[in-house]
Design a protein that fits this description.
By secondary structure, the chain is mainly β. It has one domain: Porin, CATH 2.40.160.10. It has a 16-stranded antiparallel barrel. The longest helix is centred in the first third of the chain and has 13 residues. The N terminus is likely disordered.
Amino acid sequence: MVTAPLLLLLPAAIAAEPTARVGGLVEGYYAWNLNQPTNHVNALRGFDDRHNSLTLSLASAHVAVVHDVARGTVALQTGTVPAALFATEPTGPGAFAATGADELSIIREAWGGATLTGGVTVDAGVFLSPVGFEGAAAKDNRFWSLSNLGVGLPFYLTGARISAPLGAHTTLTGGVFNGWNRVFDDNDGKTVGLWLDRSFAERARLHILYIGGAEGAGERPWRHTLDVWADLPVGPATVLLAGTAGQERRADGPARFAAAQLAVNVAVSEAWGVGARGDVFYEAGTDDTLGAIFWPTPLLGEVTLGATRTLAPGVIVRLEARHDRAQDPVFFAADPLTPTETQQTTFTVGLSSSFEALTRPATEDPQ
């Protein structure tokens, strides 16, 4: 059990008077869809799926322990982002009360752990997902909207993980989890992950990850997923190359998926940055009773142009134009119930404001 060694380390952590980081985040946006969907839905979009509405997408507050031994983070959230994040969270029965998305979506992350000998770390709880390059908060990404890879891959995992440094610039991490976007598991299997992070000179980074397990309710086939991205500085620009692929071996044959993304961002000045991104997401063999893994169409792609203006430390405005295209009619227009369009174009302005401060215990009596 992970709990026992953590309890043994607790007295030392308390005696050392750990400091903490506290912070907060508020993000919101306005988007206009040229299809003018009467249901006000930008279909298949992650966290910018409201048309013609001033939307509070994410408000979050967090505290994180900073210490040589003890580790931990608790972050709470509200807004349309957590509503979307926990949309597939199953309802878990209990002895006295069931729990589901309504009770759990307030959690952004909540985990605790320890740093052991040799820089090895052990943690347990609810984590932000290591799968993919993008996260739920726009401030942590390079565009306001998420790519199709960002929407399809998991955002949070619940379980335990252990990380070990392999030299000064490489870390290997492994973990056991309930499944993709699951606080409560809804099958008898567990999901396992193993990933390597490597940093190079000039801020270049490489991430290679495997994650596999039964995903979904009941008896499900094992889903294998390989996810790789490289973040490469090229002069004033950064180039992101990302790809993911996997399959489920179903009774009627394998269901496969593959996706790729290319994004280029350029720092024009200290205050301004511009970027362009494109991705394509393909699925095959998902016509059986289990249905598609990700989308209601086998082929989906997007192209995005964006600009970021830094107003103050932690405060940014993002402008974005995006065009989505699919093989089948999956986007809305005049009919509020049935998607009739194979494409949609949106224009978005988003504001993100965040702060973080380091707090320290008093070292002497103020008297």
